[in-house]
Design a protein that fits this description.
The protein has about 130 residues and is an alpha+beta fold. The protein has a single domain, classed as 2-Layer Sandwich (60s Ribosomal Protein L30, Chain: A), CATH 3.30.1330.40. It contains three helices and eight strands. The strands form two sheets. The chain has a six-stranded mixed beta sheet, covered by helices on one side. A two-stranded antiparallel sheet has the order 4-5.
Length: about 130
């Protein structure tokens, strides 16, 4: 009988990871789960006031976490998009389609009351499948 490998974790420079105590991404078995990811690059908000640019930046950050496991957008099986305004659905959906149209993951978009940084309009989560070889 083969032994189940321990979960692998990816940390980034996000101050929230240390403050709250979480990993950016966790690989367990054939799945990789990427935590809620904001549109921050080197601690600076990208696309202030622009939901499309924020979605692109947040997904780029989430995909960078997947790269640590040798995965790309083609491995994504589920996405979640959290928005602060229903008016931003089209802009965030456009960013999602540009990245995942060829993959077509299961996707959920939810309007929430806000985030820890009130300038953030979009936060995303990603789940990926590593395949049986994981």
């Amino acid at each position: 009988m083969s032994e189940t490998p321990a979960p692998q974790r990816v940390q980034t420079d996000s101050p929230w990871e240390a403050t709250i105590g979480f990993a950016r991404a966790v690989a367990a078995g054939d799945r990789v789960h990427v935590a809620g990811t904001m549109p921050l690059v080197d601690g600076v908000l990208v696309g202030e006031g622009d939901p499309y640019e924020q979605a692109r930046a947040a997904f780029s950050n989430a995909l960078a976490a997947l790269e640590e496991f040798g995965l790309g957008p083609e491995s994504v099986v589920r996405t979640r998009m959290y928005l602060t305004h229903a008016r931003d659905v089209d802009a965030v959906g456009r960013a999602h389609k540009e990245l995942f149209d060829g993959v077509r993951p299961a996707a959920t978009m939810v309007v929430v009351s806000g985030f820890v940084d009130s300038r953030v309009l979009v936060e995303v989560e990603v789940e990926a499948f590593r395949g049986a070889s994981a």
